[in-house]
Amino acid sequence: MNSESHCLVSRRGLLQAGAGLLLASALAPFPAQSAPSDGYRIVAAPGRARLRPDRPETDVWTYNGTVPGSVVRLRQGERARLVVENRLDQETTVHWHGIRLPNAMDGVPGLTQPPIKPGERFVYEFTPPDAGTFWYHPHANSLEQLGRGLAGAVIVEEREPVAVDHDVLWLLSDWRLTDRGAIASRFGNRMEAAMSGRVGNTVTLNGRVSEAEPFRTGERVRLRLVNASLARIMALRFEGHRPIVVTIDGQPCDPHEPEDGRILVGPAMRVDLVLDLEGEPGRRYDVVDDFYDGLSYRLTQIAYDSRPPIRAHVFDALVVLPRNPLPEPNLASAERHTLTLQGGMVSMGGMSGMGGMMGGIMGGGGGMMGMGHDAVWTINGQSMTGDGHAGMEPALVFERGRSVLLELRNETAWWHPMHFHGHSLKVLSRNGKAVPHRQWQDTVLMAPKDVVEVAFVADNPGDWMLHCHVMDHQMSGMMTVLRVA
Ligand code: C2O
Ligand code: CU
């Protein structure tokens, strides 16, 4: 059942259902700029946004004047041209996170392109091979630039429309706001960098704290979740609903219900759900993020309008998306390597989430660890700090076309969403147990002490970043370069 496009597979068997019932409209919940023939223009510039109703407007950094930035809609297999203009007062670049594109278009300053200076522009051109949910963000002064709002979704459309009523995007961002609505300064606190990273106090959905999101009973939606946070990990529960995970990091997987009904979305990860709206007209259902112990909060509510159900019967069939053209690694001949993550603060004992402790320690301010340098994390004993720069020596070199099996070992006491550029990774096992549902990811979330095996074909030539996407962790050393020669 992997490759049939748009067919419907039953939850309990393989019954074909009437696809004719379904509307194939793709309505975005907020303006999606459609690509003009000469390409998208994306302007990075300061702006203002009302992130929460109970605070004044916030000074933010925007793409095309909004947070998140305008949605970039591309088509699988069709050439894209994106002109990025820098109207910030510092250098920037744009990284098209998760898209398998040519190295020169990858947006890593120094390594793949010169940074875009204030007042200058850079033209990105590539043909996305994979349909799915991706996103774009700066790869220069990343902690601050992402933390001030520079992020947007990239939706690469399938060649054939997918049979859902609506295509909905929830781009989730985490902000640390002061009482007066300003973004708290002091990016790069060393204490946080050695622990969970800069977890904020305000989570927005498409740029605003959300009370409720409107739906109608009987609809089937594709809900695209993007976690654009600097550091916040999310575990979402949809009360009264049974969402089905259909893609992870843009790559279709075997449709499945998430373990314990919680959808784990680490920073930079994307998860697409098919959500059947089976609630009662007029009722509201909570969507809760309870990742951090003792700090669960309501992200929003699914709010049904009072109209009668859009259709009489709920679906018995799953949406199966066509697989993307990923090269299958040959595990028998793959070369094996280990990447070991180390560093950070040692365990504070017995905590599965660190929220409570963070609250206690953060008030004490940074610097109390007495670390004399900025590197607090290592990969195989080496620390690369910052955002990327010229002359970074690769930790590993692969011959083009080789299958590679990487063992990622998290020997730290903290969570890390590990991101590899230019490729997608087939996730084979976690702590010795096979990972089901044939998942491919570009950002693999690792719990403390996790050992994860991933495999890929090194088919995309160039120097590619591999780093933790908790931005403070990346900046303070949890980064390396892998070369495909
Ligand atoms: Cu989304 Cu190197 O990053
Ligand atoms: Cu990390």
TrEMBL record:
PROSITE patterns: MULTICOPPER_OXIDASE1, MULTICOPPER_OXIDASE2, TAT. It comes from Sinorhizobium fredii (strain USDA 257). Keywords: Metal-binding, Oxidoreductase, Signal. Residues 1-34 form the signal peptide. GO terms for molecular function: copper ion binding; oxidoreductase activity. The keyword Signal applies. InterPro entries: Cu-oxidase-like_N, Cu-oxidase_2nd, Cu-oxidase_C, Cu-oxidase_fam, Cu_oxidase_CS, Cu_oxidase_Cu_BS, Cupredoxin, TAT_signal. SUPFAM superfamilies: Cupredoxins. This is Copper resistance protein A. The lineage of its organism: Bacteria, Pseudomonadati, Pseudomonadota, Alphaproteobacteria, Hyphomicrobiales.
